[in-house]
Amino acid sequence: MKKFLKEEPQIYFSNDNKKIIKVIKYFCKGCGICIHFCPKKVLDWDKDFKVFAKNPNDCIACYLCELMCPDFAIFVEKEK
Ligand code: SF4
Ligand code: SF4
Predict the structure, then answer these.
(1) What range does the domain containing 24 cover?
(2) Counting ligands in written order, which one lies closest to the CA of residue 74?
(3) How far is the CA of 44 from the centre of ligand 1 (A)?
(4) Fewer CB within 10 Å, N or C, the chain?
C-alpha cells in the first residue's frame, strides 16, 4: 500500500496504544460521513477541512468510519 501513497498517513493513538486511527489526508474530501456516523464522536474536521481524530481515546474500534468512507481515506486498527 505504501508505494501508492504520496504522503504518510496521519496516525492517532489512544492513550493505551491499543487503538490506532490512520487518515490519508489527500484521499479525504471532507465529506463528513465518518464524522457523522462515528457513534463516539471521535472524529472532526481539521483546519484544512480534512478529517482528524479529535478524541482517539473514545474510539471503540467499530470500524464504521473505515467501512463507510467512500474514498478509503480512514483506517482503524485494534491491538488484541
Ligand atoms: S468519510 Fe472519508 S472522505 Fe469523508 S470525511 Fe471521512 S475520511 Fe474524509
Ligand atoms: S472505529 Fe468507530 S468509534 Fe472509532 S473512529 Fe471509527 S467510527 Fe468512530
Answers:
(1) 2-78
(2) 1
(3) 10
(4) C
6 falls in which pLDDT band (50, 70, 90)? confident
For the chain, how many structural domains are there in total?
Answer: 1
pTM greater than 0.90: yes
State the residue for C-alpha cell 481515546.
57
Question: What's 36's domain CATH number?
Answer: 3.30.70.20
In this structure, the residue with its CA closest to atom 6 of ligand 1 is 34
Compute how many other C-beta atoms are within 10 angstroms of the C-beta atom of residue 75.
17
CA 22 to chain centre: 5
Of the bound ligands, which one is closest to the alpha carbon of residue 31? 1
Band (4; pLDDT cuts 50, 70, 90): low
Whole-number Å distance, alpha carbon 42 to ligand 2 midpoint, is: 7
